[in-house]
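Input (structure):
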């Protein structure tokens, strides 16, 4: 069995994710082709509702190519014309995610698993309202892309009051999500981040919806995509990328090793066997700087982050404010192949400010070196988000070194 050093494995993982070299700077920002290349490389972008800085599906592209037009992602996901056919579609991959349209048949087994929704609530709603699913489908068939609110109004449904601080889901919304999980409807577009549902056959091309892939074959394909996106990975890593079961992943890995798609390797210091994709690139060095969103595919599986970078990372959104260590929405800072700092960021659009609420050095590293590398990345992020100023707060041991640098406003 081939043996790899931990450093080789880390470089391999970063190269697979497109994070092994600096992105080229340009006055006009990254090209559409460069953005599409990121989508082809990561195979998915996780979607999350948190908007304290920028929606999660936009941030990984910025980390890899720098400033770019977010409309390129919007058009890939939520526009479908003869000139600009849909490239991405929403589904439950690694949580809610954008995946290539051509990968949708690989999720058909999951739509069957979710026939009654991902949670038990849909079943009870349909027991109370046995015709509601058909009525919702009828409205969508007649109206085209529709939000849950628009469907409610079409059905003349009285919306219930807010149930609590987090959720306010009507029966119609629950059924829409059940139909989405079951693959009956898809998300045609979004407006203000609100899903507009349409019949799946009107969102995804007929030749793709007609493809039927057996579950075992689909899982092998998904594990292959995971391995391609990760470069080198443990079984747990490969399983997590598309939220598969251990039973599914173990069988697929066995087949892929036999077929030569994966090679089992031993990574020094890792506590589990690893699998190297046949096409993985192992660069001799890794350069560049990037801020990584908490939902970036490079870091969304926290045990892998610990294993590869020796970096303990937990998102603190749901931690009470007085118990947070680093902040609400913290971006690990990647510098020359290592996670070297944690940056708590917020975008204040009313003030046109990128606010650096906290900045913390990880481990025994030189704060001045990190600050010098982080400084231009913050300015580029502010420009990308059309925020005039970068405003530094007072929290964290990296902040003094940042404040000594020239103003970024």
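Output (sequence):
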């Amino acid at each position: 069995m081939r043996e790899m050093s931990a450093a080789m494995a880390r470089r391999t993982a970063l190269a697979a994710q497109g994070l092994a070299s600096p992105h080229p700077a340009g006055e006009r920002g990254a090209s559409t082709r460069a953005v599409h290349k990121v989508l082809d490389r990561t195979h998915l972008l996780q979607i999350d509702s948190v908007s304290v800085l920028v929606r999660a599906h936009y941030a990984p592209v910025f980390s890899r190519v720098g400033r770019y037009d977010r409309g390129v992602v919007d058009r890939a996901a939520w526009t479908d014309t003869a000139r600009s056919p849909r490239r991405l579609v929403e589904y439950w991959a690694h949580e809610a995610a954008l995946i290539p349209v051509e990968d949708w048949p690989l999720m058909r087994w999951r739509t069957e698993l979710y026939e009654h929704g991902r949670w038990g609530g849909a079943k009870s709603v349909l027991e109370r309202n046995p015709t509601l699913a058909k009525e919702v489908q009828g409205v969508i068939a007649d109206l085209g892309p529709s939000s849950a609110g628009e469907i409610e109004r079409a059905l003349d449904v009285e919306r219930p009051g807010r149930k609590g601080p987090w959720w306010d889901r009507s029966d119609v919304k629950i059924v829409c999500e059940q139909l989405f999980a079951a693959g009956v409807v898809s998300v045609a577009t979004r407006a203000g981040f609100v899903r507009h549902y349409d019949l799946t056959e009107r969102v995804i091309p007929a030749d793709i919806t007609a493809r039927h892939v057996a579950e075992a074959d689909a899982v092998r394909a998904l594990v292959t995509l995971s391995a391609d996106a990760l470069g080198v990975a443990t079984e747990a890593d490969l399983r997590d990328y598309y939220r598969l079961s251990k039973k599914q992943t173990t069988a697929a890995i066995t087949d892929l090793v036999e077929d030569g798609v994966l090679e089992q390797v031993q990574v020094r210091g890792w506590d589990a066997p690893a699998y190297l994709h046949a096409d993985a690139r192992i660069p001799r060095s890794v350069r560049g700087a990037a801020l990584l969103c908490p939902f970036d595919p490079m870091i969304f599986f926290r045990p892998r982050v610990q294993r590869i970078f020796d970096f303990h990372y937990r998102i603190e959104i749901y931690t009470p404010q007085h118990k947070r260590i680093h902040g609400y929405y913290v971006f690990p800072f990647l510098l020359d192949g290592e996670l070297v700092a944690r940056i708590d960021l917020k975008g204040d659009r009313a003030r046109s400010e990128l606010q650096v609420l906290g900045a913390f050095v990880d481990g025994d590293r030189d704060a001045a070196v990190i600050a010098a590398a982080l400084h231009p990345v913050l300015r580029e992020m502010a420009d990308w988000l059309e925020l005039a100023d970068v405003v530094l707060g007072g929290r964290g041991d990296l902040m003094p070194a940042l404040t000594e640098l020239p103003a970024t406003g």
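Notes: The chain is about 40% helix and 20% strand. The first strand starts at residue 2 and ends at 4.
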